[in-house]
Predict the structure.
Amino acid sequence: MGKARRLSAVETLFGSKRICVRTRAGFLFACDQRDWLQRNLLCNRVHEVEVSDLLARQLSPSDVFFDVGANAGYFTCLALSVGVQRVVAFEPDPLTCKTFWAQIRLNGWDARACELVEGGLSEQAGQLDLIRGSDSGESGFGDWPHRLPVGQIAVNVMTLDDYCASKDVRPTVMKVDVEGWELKVFKGAMKTLSDRRLRLITFEAEVDRQAQMTDRRLFDLLRSLGFGIEHIPRPSGSLKPTENFCARR
């Protein structure tokens, strides 16, 4: 909190604007101080340290990394910074997609270094209303209790299985952060999840006070496909309404 207070004092003097920070992983990220996720990254130089550390350890150049719910591109940049040769990111908000590409250019990566799919994922193809949150990291589909809605926009959605079939590609590692829409994404990805090449998934889920998923359907679906599932604890030991999990074979 001390860093955040000092940042507020600086803002009082100079106003709010996008500030470039070199993250702990070494890549650059232009942070919008009005956005909580990016403001936190500006203060701490790392986002979701427990997930960042896990992916940095596990990813290798030969992996095919899918960043589902890419937002402004932090985890895509993390994957590129450790040398992953093929990254596919999925982000439904067209405004956030512009920020995503700005982060890629900031680091001098060729636009061909990754593919950005400007659309959402669900259990069937069609069109859905994307509910924009007061913070870009809270935007998503459906009724999610941790979101403060500030608007909505109709966007196209597809299934992950359809995407993989159309591109003839399969992920080996996935990060899924879709604000309560995880089960819908997984239901549209049963063939992808069944492929043994997929060895690791990090995802977010709502939890109870014992850090157990409140929606056991997520747990049961992944276990039925041969994944072992474990909670990824925060370094602080604190427990929030949504926590990160790791599913691995």
Remarks:
- Residues 122 and 184 are 5 Å apart (CA to CA).
- The radius of gyration is 17 Å.
- The longest helix spans residues 2-14.
- DSSP finds nine helices and twelve strands in the chain.
